[in-house]
Amino acid sequence: MALINTTTTGVLGSTFYGDGSGDLTVQQNGVTVNKVTASPLFHATCGALTFANSTWTKLPMSGKVYDTNNNYDPTTNYRFTPTVAGYYWIKAQFFLGSSGGRTACSIYKNSGDVCQTLILSSNTNGGISVVTQGLIYFNGTTDYVEAYGYQESGGTSALNNNGGLTMFSGYMVRPA
Amino acid sequence: MTLYEKIISIYPQLATYDFATGNITLQNDSDGKGDYIREWNHPTLARPTKEQLEAIE
Fold first, then answer.
1. For residue B6, which phi and psi values (nearest 5 degrees)?
2. How big is the CA angle at B49 (ends B45 and B53), to the nearest 5 degrees?
3. Percentage helix, strand, coil, to 5, in chain B?
4. Which of A11, A85, A117, A127 has the fewest CB atoms found within 10 Å of its own CB?
5. Which of A52, A59, A60 comes nearest B4 by C-beta?
6. What is the DSSP letter of A142?
7. Would the CB atoms of A102 and B20 count as touching at under 8 Å?
8. Per-residue pLDDT tens digits for A61-75
9. For residues A23 and A140, is the Cβ–Cβ distance under 8 A?
10. Which of A49, A53, A55, A153 would best serve as a mutation to test chain B binding (most B beta carbons within 10 A)?
11. How much is the CA Rg of chain A, to the nearest whole Å?
12. A46, A50, A54, A73: best to mutate for the B interface, most B CBs within 10 A
């Protein structure tokens, strides 16, 4: 791990060099003020899906677009498990071709709902788009997130999986 | 017939607000195993048994 530790005031134009391994830690008077580390991010689009009524259904985000740290699983669990601990901004959204009643999009962390948008919708305008997003902490080992959707049109309803309408993404805001 | 439809046929008095953020959570993990009851916290109605659900076609 490389360390930059300024004591009183820095010197303009100074150049610091790390040792080429691990995170780069920035301290002031011995107190860590920031860490520069690999910052994972991902973006995925969704496969085909038909929602049953009133049933929370995992969005099968199988189209991996970006995955800078190989932390996204697009084939089995459709989940993001970052291997760098820290705070991440996570966003999920989907477009439902027919809807009615309540429509919801939720981010599940470790199988529990942590971020949800629930709206009243109608089919009069040809469908509904739901977006949810929030700041989530990951421990860098076991924590993961998945995207779920919900609709209560009264019957089944098909997802519009156009990549510009339905997606799942996230990026690190700062390390732990 | 979906799991939701089977439950409604057993308990037609259930309302939509009992689901979503209500007393009953149905879920599908897109793993090929289908819909299941994740949580059943209804104050008066008992969770349907596997036999009750399988009896409905």
1. -65, -40
2. 105
3. 30, 20, 55
4. A11
5. A52
6. S
7. yes
8. 999 999 999 999 999
9. no
10. A55
11. 20
12. A54
B34 contacts chain A (CB < 8 A):
no
Token pair, residue A55, equals 């049933």
CB-nearest to B4 from A55, A77, A102 is: A55
Structure tokens, A99: 């809807």
Average pLDDT of the residues in A88-94: 98
Dump pLDDT digits (tens) for A20-58.
777 777 777 778 887 777 789 999 999 999 999 999 999
Bridge partner list, A170? A42, A90
H/E stretch holding A28 reads strand A24-28
Chain B residue with Cα closest to A153: B16
From B2, which residue of chain A is nearest by alpha-carbon distance?
Answer: A52
Structure tokens at B15: 């309302």
Model confidence band, residue A17 (pLDDT cutoffs 50, 70, 90): low
DSSP string, A32-88: EEEEE----EEEEE----EEPTT-EEE----EEEEETTS-EESSSS-EE--SS-EEE
What is the pTM (predicted TM-score) of this model? 0.87
